[in-house]
Amino acid sequence: MIFRLTLALLISLIVISCSKDKKVVYQQSEKVDPFAIYKEGLEAFEINDFFYASKKFSEAELNFENIDLAAKSAIMSSFSLYGINFYTEALENLNRYLKKYPADRNVIYAHYLIAIIYFEQISDEKKDLKPLIKADNKIDFFLKSYPNSEYAMDLRFKKDLIQNQLAAKELFVARFYISTKKWVPAINRLKVIVKDYDQTIFIEEALHRLVEINFHLGLEEEAKKYANILGYNYNSSEWFEESYKILNKDYKIRDLAKSKKEKGFIEKILKKIR
């Protein structure tokens, strides 16, 4: 505060004459009206001129002495940057806002906006999972911190979408390993779905694939374990019907079957990854 007052005083003093024989005359600068600046930003915001609005809101924040009004200006500046997809700048603004105004009433909205920005940066999950995982982490943080917030329902829906995308990626890789007869990495991928993405639409197929692989490797007890989970939770599923056929005595083992020697090796590996 002392620094701000000192700076304002220095700016307002303009030396007209500094001669020994002449008096020093000072001219006071015009007083800045933060309300007028904020209003200008709001008018720009309403016509979707978000770039100019962001500049004005930031300027208003610097000039407001009232901390609540300064915080409101900061959050409006961040939202304006988000409006023109300046995601990096918006995140920087929001993180600065959270540090500077931790008790402000819009803190919950700031965390929500951060989660939304990360979610909207998800592009092609087949090439890069990092944006998906970051968005998932931010949404998790919000839902744990503010489970009853008005924004929670929207983020729960977005989390479901992310979880399904992550599960789809795991299943895609598992199918590839199955097609190349790499059973252990296939099992590992499928177990990730069972453990971490059991609420997604891909859980039924993942359980069935575990039944199928374990049966073909001669690990019938392991196959029955996953079949029981599938039957108990999804007994009307087509994947359960397929698993039931596999465990039927008349089911023929296809070329996926392995020798007893390989079976023993697989059992040792499975013990390590359980």
How would you describe this protein?
The protein has 274 residues and is mostly helical. It has two domains: 31-163, Tetratricopeptide repeat domain (Serine Threonine Protein Phosphatase 5, Tetratricopeptide repeat, Alpha Horseshoe); 167-273, Serine Threonine Protein Phosphatase 5, Tetratricopeptide repeat (Alpha Horseshoe). Helices cover 70% and strands 0% of the residues. It has 13 helices and no strands. It has helices at residues 2-12, 34-46, 50-63, 67-83, 87-100, 107-120, 130-145, 152-179, 183-196, 203-216, 220-233, 238-247, 260-273. The two termini are 61 Å apart.
Summarize the structure.
By secondary structure, the chain is mainly α.
CATH class of the largest domain: Mainly Alpha
CATH topology of the largest domain: Serine Threonine Protein Phosphatase 5, Tetratricopeptide repeat
| Whole-angstrom Rg | 31 Å
Give me the count of strands: 0
How many angstroms separate the termini? 61 Å
Biggest β-sheet strands, sense, barrel:
none
**What is the CATH architecture annotation of the largest domain?**
Alpha Horseshoe
Total individual domains: 2
What name goes with the CATH superfamily of the largest domain?
A: Tetratricopeptide repeat domain
Q: How much strand content do the residues show?
A: under 5%
- Rough outline: elongated
Low-confidence stretches: 1-29, 255-274
Please, what is the average pLDDT? 83
